[in-house]
Prior knowledge:
By secondary structure, this protein is an all-alpha fold. The chain is 57% helix and 0% strand. Helix 1 packs across helix 4 (52-65), helix 2 (18-34) runs antiparallel to helix 5 (72-88) and helix 3 runs antiparallel to helix 4.
Amino acid sequence: xxxxxxxxxxxxxxxxxxxxxxxxxxxxxxxxxxxxxxxxxxxxxxxxxxxxxxxxxxxxxxxxxxxxxxxxxxxxxxxxxxxxxxxxxxxxxxxxxxxxxxxxxxxxxxxxxxxxxx
Length: 118
């Protein structure tokens, strides 16, 4: 159950990289099939909450009751979402133009302008 909830939260916070979105689409499709007939749970998937605790509270019982937590295909899809989300948060810095600290979200750092060249 924790793996599924973590993947749902990771997909909601990872951004719109194609890898994350593709993995999430497949994962979500499997969950929707498994949750067939559980309208509130399916609607909760569309809410895109970002906190695992919220996912757990909204659809945890339904995921357990329908057997999603033991479905090998769903668990593999959840792992794929988490792997893509991890990659989406990894950046390679080749040059540092004096930027220091932690950065969250999209960041663009332009090289310094040499006086007289603009």
